[in-house]
């Protein structure tokens, strides 16, 4: 009688969105392992959501994320220390498969380490870095392709780009489609939150990183002030990405004199479903708004130095920043970057979306975005691809065949 098959998967990610995507994948992997009779252990660098889903954390990376040059400096040593510990643990307890989720700076180094220490261990890149959007040269893309046995893409354009660069790619669709399938209707969400049907509800989502409280929150809150002056009945709600930001955001609400209420992250999905409009940082949350049919203005700002260096030294050219616009590769929602993300412009764009043709146009174009994000089951499809590669690698190991793993055409 055969014993229970035991497998260990290591997942590496960072940031709030990576932790969210990782948690959904952890759930899907553990479910498939149970169905297949596999004793699966998942160890990870990630966050609270992944841990709650069943991963054993080697380190919590959520507080270490940043965007920018100078902004990243304080996080370099803590990140290196955490990765050093994770690598030590992996040497002592080798993984059967590794999954990297976004988080390019840290994950390229981790991928190279895995490739050198465990050459037969398959590496899956799930939600690859957005080199297909803003790649400055081929270096990062080539490194991603070199360390990856299978790339699981969530955007069609992402899949096309990496396949053209020589990666073995499968488009699985976007996991948010799964996450939001159980979201309440607008009426049910408002009833849950005690919001009257006729009330105008505007979501303000300024930050999932510490630096965004500095660069984004003032512009968003000042714009909200202007909207409040023109629409006194408007009510603002702020979903907390991280509980640690509560006091700072609450103090800012009082300082700006906003009729605003903070909502815990557990109720964030319900809040979005209840909203008439959102003013939000550019990021994964934009797709949540689109899937729940909430018109939005997406903004992003970084330090003046980082913006200057990006334009003049690194020669970065961003076609679109918001994922909602990246899906069809055209402007669906207003996105205001750097100098354009000023309170007057944010307020003007937002007021235009509360009613009228601009609002109707966005809601119509969301239908295409929703189709392009794929059907339900993205996480299960990703889990199936991962277990297929895991099974294949085991067969190769059993046969003692010295060959690369998982490089079949997709």
What do these coordinates show?
The chain is of the alpha/beta class. The strands form two sheets. It has a seven-stranded parallel β-sheet, sandwiched between helices. A six-stranded parallel β-sheet has the order 10-9-8-11-12-13, sandwiched between helices. It has two domains: 5-173 and 375-399, Glycogen Phosphorylase B (Rossmann fold); 182-372, Rossmann fold, CATH 3.40.50.2000. The protein has helices at residues 15-36, 48-53, 73-92, 104-117, 131-134, 139-147, 156-164, 175-179, 186-193, 210-215, 217-230, 246-256, 268-274, 284-291, 304-312, 323-326, 343-352, 357-372, 378-399, and strands at residues 5-12, 38-46, 56-60, 97-101, 123-126, 150-153, 169-171, 201-205, 235-239, 260-263, 277-281, 296-300, 335-337. The longest helix has 22 residues, at 15-36. 46% of the residues are buried.
């Amino acid at each position: 009688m055969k014993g229970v098959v035991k497998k260990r998967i290591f997942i590496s990610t960072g940031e709030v969105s990576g932790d969210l995507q990782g948690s959904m994948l952890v759930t899907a992997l553990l479910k498939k392992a149970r169905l297949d009779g596999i004793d699966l252990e998942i160890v990870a660098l990630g966050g609270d959501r992944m841990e709650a889903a069943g991963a054993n954390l080697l380190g919590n990376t959520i507080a270490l994320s940043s965007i920018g040059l100078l902004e990243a400096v304080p996080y370099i040593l803590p990140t290196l220390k955490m990765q050093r510990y994770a690598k030590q643990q992996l040497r002592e307890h080798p993984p059967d498969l590794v999954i990297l989720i976004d988080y390019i700076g840290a994950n390229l180094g981790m991928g190279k380490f895995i490739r050198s220490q465990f050459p037969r261990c398959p590496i899956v890149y799930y939600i690859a870095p957005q080199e297909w959007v803003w790649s400055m040269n081929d270096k990062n893309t080539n490194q991603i392709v070199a360390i990856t046995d299978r790339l699981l893409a969530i955007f069609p354009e992402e899949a096309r780009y990496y396949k053209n660069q020589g990666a073995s790619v499968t488009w699985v669709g976007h996991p948010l489609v799964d996450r939001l399938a159980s979201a309440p209707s607008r009426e049910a969400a408002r009833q849950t939150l005690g919001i009257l049907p006729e009330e105008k509800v505007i979501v303000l989502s300024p930050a999932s990183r510490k630096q965004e409280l500095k660069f984004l929150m003032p512009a968003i809150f000042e714009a909200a002030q202007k909207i409040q002056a023109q629409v006194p009945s408007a009510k603002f709600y702020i979903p907390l990405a991280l509980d640690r930001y509560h006091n700072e955001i609450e103090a800012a609400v009082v300082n700006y004199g906003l009729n605003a209420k903070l909502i815990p992250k557990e109720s964030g999905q319900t809040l979005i479903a209840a909203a008439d409009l959102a003013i939000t940082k550019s990021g994964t949350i934009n797709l949540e708004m689109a899937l729940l049919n909430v018109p939005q203005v997406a903004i992003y700002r970084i330090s003046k130095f980082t913006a200057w260096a990006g334009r003049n030294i690194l020669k970065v050219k961003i076609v679109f920043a918001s994922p909602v616009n990246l899906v069809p590769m055209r402007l669906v929602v207003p996105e205001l970057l750097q100098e354009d993300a000023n309170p007057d412009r944010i307020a003007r764009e937002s007021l235009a979306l509360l009613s009228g043709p601009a609002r109707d146009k966005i809601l119509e174009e969301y239908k295409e975005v929703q189709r392009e994000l794929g059907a339900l089951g993205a996480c299960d499809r990703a889990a199936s691809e991962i277990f297929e590669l895991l099974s294949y690698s085991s067969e190769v190991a059993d046969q003692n065949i010295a060959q690369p793993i998982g490089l079949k055409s997709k």
